[in-house]
Amino acid sequence: MGVEIIAISINLFAAPHKIALGGVSGVSVLLDAVFSIPTYATVLVLNLLMLVLSYLFLGKKTTINIALGSLMLPIGLALTPEIMLVKDPFVSVIASGAIFGVGLALLYRCNASSGGTAVPPMIVKKYFRIKEPITLLVIDLVVTFFNIFVTGFESFVVATIALVISSAVIDYIETGLDRKKVLYIMSTEKENEIRKAILAYGTTTTIFDVTGGHSGDENRMIMVVIESNDYFALLSILEDIDPKAFVLVYNASEVHGGFSLKD
Questions:
Q1: Are residues 93 and 203 located together in one domain of the fold?
Q2: What is the pTM assigned to this prediction?
Q3: CB 3.0-4.6 Å disulfide test: which of 7, 28, 107, 195 passes with 80?
Q4: DSSP the chain
Q5: Does the pLDDT value for residue 109 go beyond 80?
Q6: What range defines the domain where residue 118 resides?
Q7: What is the mean pLDDT of residues 109-116?
């Protein structure tokens, strides 16, 4: 499903406007625009080349992990018709970046890959200790830069914006959709009232024994995990009980297990 979503993002949004968003798919769009080479053919050839490089430099296990996605993507591109759904190139390419990010994030979630330019960053990391996102960003920017010579400078700018959106979507989906807020609360005088208010609100707490780093005083800290949309309501309750309470807030990308009174 992730591979087909990527194919849709290319054939229905980016390719009709001849704008490359980076990676092997971006190269295929550029070659299609200049030489009328079908996108699936370019992706197939380049992905096979990347599989050979992966086998030589990364080993058999890594190659097997990316082989299925590498071979399925050109099939998806061949079966998905190239249709211009959105006439405005800016809107279409932005949509392409977001949809591409969803597809790639789904592949990451099941420890798979569409191959292509995901391979060189892994090789660079193995031999030169350079982080994969940095190398991948450089490759994508180089590919998008060639939009200037094919469809103009505006296409390059739009493609760069789409890359940023795609990265944000990947990060959001990959790190979890079940995002919550974690609150650490410490009140020197009204801890029990705060704890009872949290319980009455519909969730439970965890209590830590803490010691002041400067004063050395013993105290207790309350930890509570809540839905993001409940944050401001609970914060208002805490401020009404003790405006001087210490509250530390974290974003939790995903929470498993535990206990909630609402459940």
A1: no
A2: 0.72
A3: 7
A4: -HHHHHHHHIIIIIGGGT---SHHHHHHHHHHHHH---HHHHHHHHHHHHHHHHHHHT-HHHHHHHHHHHHHHHHHHHHS------S-HHHHHHHHHHHHHHHHHHHHHTT----GGGHHHHHHHHHH---HHHHHHHHHHHHHHTHHHHT-HHHHHHHHHHHHHHHHHHHHHHT-S--EEEEEEE-SS-HHHHHHHHHHHT---EEEEEE-TTT--EEEEEEEEEEGGGHHHHHHHHHHH-TT-EEEEEEES---S---TT-
A5: no
A6: 2-174
A7: 80
